[in-house]
Specification:
Order of helices and strands: EHEHEHEHEHEEHHHEEHEEH
Number of strands: 11
Number of helices: 10
Strand content: 5-15%
CATH superfamily of the largest domain: Type I PLP-dependent aspartate aminotransferase-like (Major domain)
CATH class of the largest domain: Alpha Beta
InterPro entries: Aminotransferase_I/II_large, Ethylene_sulfur-biosynth, NHTrfase_class1_PyrdxlP-BS, PyrdxlP-dep_Trfase, PyrdxlP-dep_Trfase_major, PyrdxlP-dep_Trfase_small
Number of domains: 2
Structural class: alpha/beta
Shape: globular
Radius of gyration: 26 Å
CATH architecture of the largest domain: 3-Layer(aba) Sandwich
Pfam families: Aminotran_1_2
Largest sheet: 7 strands, mixed
Strand order of the largest sheet: 1-7-6-5-4-2-3
Helix content: 40-55%
Enzyme class: lyase
Cofactor: pyridoxal 5'-phosphate
Distance between the termini: 99 Å
CATH topology of the largest domain: Aspartate Aminotransferase, domain 2
GO molecular function: 1-aminocyclopropane-1-carboxylate synthase activity; pyridoxal phosphate binding; transaminase activity
Length: 371
């Protein structure tokens, strides 16, 4: 964890609790920090699995922090306060904020001023902050990744109450490409949370065999360093190919620097500015174009027309084919739209001539009557 964060922060092994993946880590923190009916605030768009991981067995409610494309979906003070007040109006006790940094599905890292804003907010409200940092090792271009722990230490908050109210979730699934190993971790400076999470980890242990294998792997510093460097280059190359292919199809996306996906803007392809139109477009892409992408509504995006497109788990040839299919699809929409507009113009022109002839005929008839 320290190496991925550039050794700017150190982590005490006694404050780490191993879990069976990040899913288990997030659920365990919900059990530790909240009661049934309490709420956590999450910025939109967010990972769809949180609806399952945070809520199903804990009874915790999610209240969205509505972020928009006007500022690249960054968290703002008014949005935070509005989400908090919304929870209050629903008689929900807010126990904390949960963010993913880097973001899934945006593929972006949080800026330091956003992290400062979050720390100030939870300090003022006396609530918790969970920073899900499972994509921290996937940052392939600037700006670099800044951990919430780094911000806490830079602000010398070690001896303040907020120090024990910030918790980190980490996993090897994304950084080392080991999702099937189910190795996650909770890091907390609160000894009570560590003790409770340790007891609960008995329901989701990492096997001894897995721990032994990973211990040997991670002890090879040369391998891990070379692996991470090569992984960053491959991610950046693949992401560039996706962005280039999308541009050729006339599609833009949010500028990203991390993660395994891009947040793609297809608003101009919607038949109307509605989530119904978004689902209609998504079905056409899935069933007709044969591309598996995620609609923004599944990530609780407040604006229709955004889609998450993964690029890391396919070959270059497959990605090239996917972009060719998508371009052909967009071109077909453009041709249909042009034909539709030409038909409308033709009908309008015909109606104009028909009305003119009718009006002329009526005038001629009246003239004959007057005679």
């Amino acid at each position: 964890m320290a190496e991925i964060r550039g050794n700017k922060v150190t982590f005490d092994p006694n404050h780490i609790v191993l879990t069976a993946g990040a899913t288990s880590a997030n659920e365990t923190l919900m059990f530790c920090l909240a009661e049934q009916g309490d709420a956590f605030l999450l910025p939109t768009p967010y990972y769809p699995g949180f609806d399952r991981d945070l809520k199903w067995r804990t009874g915790v409610e999610i209240v969205p922090i509505q972020c928009t494309s006007s500022n690249r979906f960054q968290i703002t003070a008014p949005a935070l306060e509005e989400a908090y007040q919304q929870a209050q109006r629903k008689n929900l006790r807010v126990k904390g904020v949960l963010v993913t940094n880097p973001s899934n599905p945006l593929g972006t890292t949080m800026r330091r001023d956003e992290l400062d804003l979050l720390i100030n907010f939870i300090t003022d409200k006396e609530i918790h902050l969970i920073s899900d940092e499972i994509y921290s090792g996937t940052v392939f271009s600037s700006p670099g990744f800044v951990s919430i722990m780094e911000v806490l230490k830079d602000r010398s908050l070690e001896q303040t109450p907020v120090w024990e109210r910030v918790h980190i979730v980490y996993s090897l699934s994304k950084d080392l490409g080991l999702p099937g190993f189910r190795v996650g971790a909770i890091y907390s400076n609160d000894p009570i949370v560590v003790a409770a999470a340790t007891k609960m980890s008995s329901f989701g242990l990492v096997s001894s065999q897995t721990q032994y294998l990973l211990s040997a792997m991670l002890s090879d510093k040369k391998f891990t360093k070379e692996y991470m460097a090569k992984n960053h280059k491959r991610l950046q190359k693949q992401q560039s190919k996706l962005v280039s292919g999308l541009e050729k199809a006339g599609i833009g996306c949010l500028e990203s620097n991390a993660g395994l996906f891009c947040w793609v803007d297809m608003r101009h392809l919607l038949s109307s500015n509605t989530f119904e139109a978004e689902m209609e477009l998504w079905k056409r892409i899935v069933y007709d174009v044969k591309l598996n992408i995620s609609p923004g509504s599944s990530c609780h995006c407040s604006e229709p027309g955004w889609f998450r497109v993964c690029f890391s788990n396919i070959s270059e040839d497959t990605l090239k084919l996917a972009m060719q299919r998508l371009k052909s699809f967009v071109d077909s929409i453009a041709i249909n739209d042009q034909s539709h507009q030409e038909l409308k113009n033709s009908r309008k022109k015909f109606r104009t001539k028909w009305v003119f002839r009718l009006s002329f005929q009526s005038f001629h008839d009246r003239e004959q009557d007057e005679r």
